[in-house]
């Protein structure tokens, strides 16, 4: 079992009968969705919402019952991965391109469980480029404003074309170096017209489950 899978399967143990569960997106969340599907087949009763079309497709394929957002008021627990996680419950997310929808789920979750392997645990965020979701309209002006914050934004591509999120937006991957104040950078990014959301999840993680070498799993609660 790889480290991501070990962390994901431990996190799924938090899900209880009757819960509304948020499904994350990405290679680590994949293992959580798969384990949730196994538990549903074993008799676990739950309803789920997904943070991306891909995760929704996996849930349907594997028999996880999905519910419309209009039918719920909150999410009991969301399980999702992260590209980086520091020691203060701050994250960089969005490597999979679903950062806006992931942040919506995280904000409305009673418990946000983040699953990572030990390579994603860092003292300070910033080694991984920060994804920033921007609208296509006048994107050159938005990119110019991002540059004024001290980065050289690069529009993400996939298969030789500009990557589009499930919301039809673009992703600018931004390197800021070591991020000394994640909350302040998040605030400054979101003040730029044209920026829809950014991949800084500041103190949003309630629990971080880490898969470590040798099959060991650590759990750190923050909130």
Please tell me about this protein's structure.
The chain is an alpha/beta fold. The chain has two domains: 3-122 and 202-214, Rossmann fold, CATH 3.40.50.1360; 130-198, Alpha-Beta Plaits. Helices cover 28% and strands 28% of the residues. The protein has a six-stranded mixed beta sheet with strand order 2-1-3-6-14-15. It has a four-stranded antiparallel beta sheet with strand order 8-11-7-12, with helices on one face. Strand 1, helix 2 and strand 2 (46-50) form a beta-alpha-beta unit. Helix 1 (3-12) packs across helix 2 and helix 2 runs parallel beside helix 3 (53-62). The longest helix is centred in the first third of the chain and has 15 residues, at 27-41. The chain is globular. The mean pLDDT is 97.
Protein topology:
Blueprint: H1 3-12, E1 19-23, H2 27-41, E2 46-50, H3 53-62, E3 75-81, E4 84-85, E5 91-92, H4 99-107, E6 109-117, E7 130-134, H5 139-147, E8 154-155, E9 157-158, E10 161-162, E11 170-174, H6 182-190, E12 195-198, E13 200-201, E14 207-211, E15 217-221
Helix pairs in contact: 1-2, 2-3
Task: Name its key features.
223 residues, 4-stranded antiparallel beta sheet, 15 strands, 6-stranded mixed beta sheet, alpha/beta, globular, Alpha-Beta Plaits, Rossmann fold, 28% strand
């Amino acid at each position: 079992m790889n480290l991501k899978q070990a962390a994901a399967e431990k996190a799924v143990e938090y899900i209880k009968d009757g819960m509304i569960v948020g499904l994350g997106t990405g290679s680590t969340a994949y293992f959580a969705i798969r384990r949730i599907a196994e538990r549903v087949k074993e008799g676990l009763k739950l309803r789920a919402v997904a943070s991306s079309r891909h995760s929704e497709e996996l849930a349907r394929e594997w028999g996880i019952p999905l519910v419309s957002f209009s039918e719920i008021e909150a999410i009991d627990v969301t399980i999702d991965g992260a590209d980086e996680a520091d020691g203060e419950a701050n994250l960089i997310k969005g490597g999979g391109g679903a950062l806006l929808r992931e942040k919506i789920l995280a904000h409305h979750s009673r418990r946000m469980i983040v699953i990572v392997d030990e390579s994603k645990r860092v003292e300070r965020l910033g080694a991984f480029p920060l994804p920033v979701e921007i609208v296509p309209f006048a994107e050159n002006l938005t990119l110019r404003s991002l540059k004024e914050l001290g980065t050289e934004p690069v529009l993400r591509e996939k298969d030789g074309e500009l990557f589009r999120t499930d919301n039809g937006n673009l992703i600018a991957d931004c390197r800021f170096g070591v991020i000394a104040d994640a909350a302040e950078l998040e605030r400054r990014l979101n003040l730029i017209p044209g920026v829809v959301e950014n991949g800084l999840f500041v103190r949003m993680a309630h629990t971080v489950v880490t898969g470590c070498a040798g099959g060991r799993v650590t759990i750190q609660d923050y909130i």
